[in-house]
Design a protein that fits this description.
The protein is about 40% helix and about 20% strand. By secondary structure, the chain is an alpha+beta fold. Among the domains are: about 10-25 and about 40-145 and about 190-230, Immunoglobulin-like (Sandwich); about 345-495, Neutral Protease, domain 2 (Orthogonal Bundle); about 505-645, Immunoglobulin-like, CATH 2.60.40. Helix 1 (about 265-285) packs across helix 3 and helix 15 (about 670-690) packs antiparallel against helix 16. The longest helix has 21 residues, at about 670-690.
């Protein structure tokens, strides 16, 4: 039983009331989904009994909670969900020894709030302020198959061919209530004493070290030491037959648990964990408070990993590794492990008052996982990965997710789940990074350290954090004199309570030597921020000092002279704002300043930091996408230097820009000129990475950008790239030489297969078809072939493939009827060369296609890509389809054909049309002037990359029928249609 808190005599008044599942009624009242604050937990004693070793999914529990009463109330409210057979006993704990029996109690369950409410049968204040009670609840429940609450999994022991069952927990964010009745909110911290009864051949681990083990027959009860005060979402335990490896350093024992056959695969994770915990302690000056930290590899887990205090759970593939394999994945998995270790401080030691502040957990863990990994493994260049993996997603979050502030109030379980999104993880990490630099790194870390010390074992909100940062800034000799230093709350709140991110327009007045900083967001005119700026110039090209030179206030414009900014600039000098892109905002420049930067890039690009070289293109991309730039030639001028760019970070950003321009120039007279321009830029880097690479392990930094280089080169029809990927793809397809984890190509696996089949000879193409038909349809190999064939650029091969998929004689040997129509839509969206072929195929075969149950749905999706010049053709086709379906009575799915006048028709092409109208002629003129005579036209490249077969190797039977249809169709194809 739980020992009563200090200051009490500890007399437990037994007898109160046994509630054996009887449910009473409670007067109706309006309820929040939040727990009331009249009571709070002092400590839990949790006993779970399970026969999971036998495959029995039923478990029983005894949750005993010492409860303090803050304010007199007629109820004790707990969370509980999917638990049953309650037997509830309430005892009063008194310091004096007097006996006040609480009687006549019952309980009610509120399913909407998942509340278990203990209350008197009559409405009166049964629980008095200042008193303490012990609530004991017996119950039963069933383990779940999904990783929520207490769940089960199994694996086959290869040595005995025996199925072994395992039980594990996932309590975050609101799943502890599925395991035991509790105060399941992060603000209700308490101590937990846990004991687990399980099969004698299984063992149990939990948050804390084992205190005692008791054997009784075929069962064992494992008792664990009491935890420090912690939130319910961190309660964790696992019952398994797993084995472990371990190492102790600085008094902390760390263990890697896995199934017995995988034990040695945990060596690298163990070494990393030991180094990382020590590095975290040194960096923040706050010791890891527990005696042990376990890491366990599970077949099923909620996400990649979960940071339970003292017991981190992982998906197997994110923790266990061979010494060889995909380098990039191994680095990513180190970051994942370090993210969970960082949570031992951010979230576990100090927890959020409420889920509105989830970013204080996830943002700090995300960012400092990279910081610590970079300190330990500088050769991996993980801060470059932060820019590309976290930063890129954060900068584009508003394109993919519901927009909200970092600090957002949530209440329902669904809302709480939804807050664990790109904003909480990636945007918050970028904002934290910004102030880590703006406030000087040492000052920021000291403030965080004091915050952790002050609030350890308790909960905090964002204002508590901001106040400690301000206190540290005030003590600094430089920042303590700044006018903004007393407004840190206001500064930080402008970021945590804004929905969007700012764009800073830097406009230089070259006549009166002033600079105007304008701020806005793409979507909101009302939001403004306190924005930290720092500067690098041609006169002072220092990018290493990243603290704030200036905070611009939250107003639309702010103008300052060069003297006020302490900057020296001549008319032709360049100015770059946001050194190393430490600030979380876009920067746009006036055209003259962009041209000055472009001159520097072409003259000596290394004078500008590689992160800023990348940032230039990241910041230009939304301007290009929204056709905001008046002078598109300045972007092309800036791209010219990339031929000499050896750092791969800028290539990641340039790849996006090039792909966007290429896709928008498709079917224009500028496309081939642009592809030649790209070939000139990318050839040196492609050769360095793929042709001239030395033997040995490829650096993680190279792999990170390798896929972008490969895509750029092959999509621009660089012959060397086409040969390279075709060779690898054919080895996999025809020789089953796998591109597996043992190869550095694994990270580019899908791209290699797609690019490798872009230009196949007839012999090879029909060979792939034959291999696909012979393959097991449930195999990964089969999926690889069918999805790589979508990439072919040959019209004859596309028609052949469409006939095989959808034709009258197809009998759906490759995909089912609904799958084939979905594939048609997918093919249309992913392969621009296929669009004209698909439209004409639909035009000739709609009487067959519209019999598919999901034809209308997929036709409507494709209709969104109709260009304006082909609208008349589309209108006629749509009318013909509608008339035929009406006559044949085929409107059976309930879905309606898209209306001819619908705004959705051609919607996805409108941005392209605006881009072409504004920029295509300017781009064409620039390319004609700047790009030398092309060494080859597309047709020549296509021919050179092929060894065209005579068709004698085509599969017979059904495929011969498809071949005849293709030959007829090719005679009438208009290659310009629907492009």
């Amino acid at each position: 039983m739980i020992t009563p808190s200090s200051g009490f005599a500890g007399l437990v008044l037994a007898v109160a009331l046994a509630l054996s599942g009887v449910s009473g009624s409670l007067p109706t009242r309006d309820r929040s989904l939040r727990l009331p604050n009249e009571t709070y937990p002092l400590g839990y004693h949790l006993h779970i009994s399970s026969n999971i070793h036998l495959g029995n999914l039923l478990f029983s529990g005894n949750a005993t909670i010492d409860v303090a009463i803050r304010q007199s109330t007629n109820e004790i409210v707990l969370h509980a969900k999917n638990l049953s057979d309650y037997q509830i006993t309430v005892r009063q704990l008194t310091p004096s020894g007097s006996v006040d029996v609480v009687d006549d109690l019952t309980h009610t369950y509120n399913p909407q709030a998942a509340f278990l409410i203990i209350h008197p049968r009559e409405n009166y204040q049964a629980f008095e302020a200042g008193q303490r009670y012990r609530v004991e609840i017996l119950y039963t429940a069933i383990m779940r198959s999904r990783p929520m609450g207490l769940y089960w999994m199994d694996y086959v022991d290869e040595s005995t061919n025996r199925t072994v069952y395992v039980a594990a927990t996932q309590s975050e964010p609101t799943y502890a209530r599925l395991i035991f009745p509790c105060y399941d909110e992060p603000g209700f911290k308490s101590n937990f004493s846990i004991r687990l009864t399980h099969g004698i051949n299984h063992s149990a681990i939990s948050n804390m070290p084992v205190k005692d083990v008791q054997h009784h027959g075929e069962l064992t009860t494992t008792l664990f030491a009491a935890t420090p005060p912690m939130s319910t979402y961190l309660v964790a335990f696992v019952i398994s037959d797993f084995e472990h490896i371990s190492e102790t350093y600085r008094g902390v024992t760390q263990r890697i648990y896995s199934s017995p056959r995988s034990k040695e695969k945990g060596q690298s994770a163990l070494k990393n964990a030991v180094r990382t915990v020590a590095a975290m302690e040194d960096y923040f000056g706050v010791s890891y408070p527990l005696q042990k930290l376990d890491h366990i590899a599970l077949k099923k887990n909620y996400g990649a990993a979960m940071e339970n205090w003292g017991l981190i759970t992982f998906k197997e593939g994110n923790l266990l590794h061979q010494d060889t394999g995909d380098v990039h994945k191994r680095v990513k998995d180190k970051i994942t492990q370090n993210h969970e270790i960082a949570h031992q401080w951010f979230g576990n030691l100090v927890s959020p008052e409420w889920w509105s502040y989830a970013w204080m957990n996830e943002g700090f863990a995300t960012y400092f996982a990279y910081v610590i990994t970079d300190l330990l493994y500088p050769e991996d260049k993980v801060m470059d990965m932060f820019v590309s993996d976290e930063g890129d997603r954060a900068y584009s979050y508003n394109s993919f997710f519901d927009v909200r502030p970092m600090t957002s109030y949530v209440e329902t379980e669904k809302e709480i789940m939804a807050i664990f999104d790109i904003i909480t993880y990636k945007r918050a990490a970028c904002v934290i990074k910004m102030f880590h630099h703006a406030f000087k790194q040492k000052i920021f870390v000291r403030g965080i350290s004091r915050f952790l010390e002050k609030y350890k074992y308790t909960v905090a909100n964002e204002l508590n954090l901001f106040d400690y940062l301000q206190a540290e800034l005030l003590e600094d000799e430089h920042f303590g004199q700044q006018p903004w230093v007393l407004r840190v709350r206001e500064i930080m709140l402008s970021w945590t309570h804004s929905e969007w991110m700012p764009i800073v327009l830097v406009t230089r007045n070259y006549e009166n030597d002033t600079i105007t900083f304008s701020q806005r967001s793409i979507h909101s005119k009302s939001e403004h921020w306190w924005i930290p700026l720092n500067f690098a110039t041609a006169q002072k090209p220092c990018f290493e000092e990243t603290q704030a030179d200036l905070f611009i206030p939250p107003q639309t414009q702010h103008s300052l002279s060069l003297a006020e900014l302490n900057l020296q600039l001549t008319g032709r000098d360049w100015l770059i704002v946001n050194k190393q892109q430490t600030g979380f905002y876009h920067v746009h420049y006036d055209t003259d300043n962009l041209r000055a930067i472009s001159r520097q890039l072409r003259h000596n690009h290394t004078l500008i930091h590689p992160v800023n070289r990348a940032a230039l293109f990241r910041d230009l991309k939304p301007q290009i996408e929204h056709t905001e730039l008046e002078d598109i030639d300045v972007v092309l001028d800036m791209l010219k230097y990339m031929e000499f760019e050896e750092d791969l970070l800028p290539w990641n950003q340039v790849a996006d820009t090039i792909d966007f321009v290429r896709r928008n120039l498709f079917a224009t007279s500028s496309l081939e000129l642009f592809n030649e321009f790209v070939r000139q830029l990318v050839t040196p880097t492609f050769r360095r990475l793929f042709r001239d690479k030395t033997s040995g392990e490829v650096p993680n930094s190279d792999l990170d950008a390798g896929q972008a280089i490969l895509l750029m080169a092959c999509l621009a029809d660089l012959p060397e790239c086409l040969d390279h990927t075709r060779t690898l793809a054919k080895e996999y397809i025809f020789k089953r030489i796998n591109v597996t984890n043992e190869s550095e190509y694994f990270a580019m696996y899908d791209s290699i297969l797609c690019l490798g089949v872009r230009y196949l000879s007839d012999k090879d193409f029909y060979g792939v078809i034959g291999m696909m038909q012979a393959a097991d349809r449930s195999s990964i190999y089969y999926d690889d072939l069918i999805y790589s064939l979508r990439c072919t650029q040959s019209h004859s091969h596309l028609l052949y493939f469409l006939e095989l998929l959808l034709g009258e004689n197809s009998t759906h040997l490759i995909l089912s009827d609904p799958e084939s129509m979905m594939y048609l839509s997918y093919l249309y969206k992913s392969n621009m060369e296929a669009r004209s072929v698909i439209w004409q195929y639909i035009d000739r075969n709609y009487k067959l296609l519209c019999r598919s149950p999901n034809f209308v749905e997929n036709f409507n999706q494709i209709a969104e890509f109709v260009p304006r010049q082909q609208k008349p053709h589309f209108v006629l086709l749509r009318q013909n389809i509608a008339a035929y379906m009406e006559v044949q009575g085929l409107n059976h799915t309930g879905a309606a054909l898209i209306d001819i006048d619908s705004g959705l028709v051609g919607k996805k092409m409108k941005n392209t049309e605006v881009f072409v109208d504004k920029y295509e002629q300017k781009i064409h003129n620039w390319l004609l002037a700047e790009v030398p005579q092309m060494s080859a036209q597309k047709e020549a490249i296509y021919a050179a990359s092929l060894s065209v077969g005579n068709g004698s190797n085509r599969p017979q039977g059904l495929l011969n029928t498809a071949s005849e249809v293709v030959q007829k169709a090719l005679r009438s194809i208009d290659r310009s249609l629907y492009r």
